[in-house]
Give the backbone structure.
Amino acid sequence: MSMEKSQVGRRAGAGPGALLLCRAEAGSVAPAAQLLRERMLLTGAGEGWSVLVPEGKPWLHGDEPVDRVLTGWAAALAVGAPWLVLALWWDADRAGYTLASGFRRPVGYVWLADGTPAGEDEAMRTFAARLGLDPVLDLESLDALTKPDPEADARTRLRGLLAVLTRAGVALPTGLTPGEPADRLREIARIRPDARQIERSGWREVVRTEFEAVDHSRLGPLLPWSGTPAARALSLTQLTTGLPLTAWGLRRRSAGWTAAGVLLLAHGALGAVCELTRPRD
């Protein structure tokens, strides 16, 4: 890698920043976003899409880099929700995305600041499949982002990714551009007429609002009080997964992963209680 190319990449990378795209209307995202216990701004991002703009910068004050923080947040939002969450992140050295969907393993891709691909091609194919993108035209465009291009830095790669997503309905508000300083993103989101403030909440309110969000989703047969075999199996999985995930999140001081673990434990515990108190024939 030439010194000139490295310097161009670093200029494009600027400071750390992030955006969280949710494939749902703001009304559905708002209660679920409270589980992150972070101050954020929520606004529309196209038909059937919303975007969360972090107001704080936990990656500057803790041990976790921005990509790990955003992966935890995306996973926490996607747990128990019938919609996808796409985290876009960048810092001075790299940029990339993480796509989270329910209990499936998150998938992501990374570019170095100068645009050099540093991910696996299979991740792009999984990304396209989960979003329901065109397996030929859209995948061809995504595949181009995994090839060397001396004219494309990390910010350009993220813009290319968003250009493909416009065909899936994504339309970020003007100015909410990956690579921009986090403070500027926050100010742009704040002046949007449909902007909502996501405030920090206590865990009891977080769990209650998340249950309300799930209760109005298409996951009826999986709800703890439905009494179906699938619901019982899901509750057991949530308990066995939530405990180590919460412990790991607390140990790493990761707000996103801790929130995901607590939410799994809450869902699983509620399912166990419902099953124990259910009248027997």
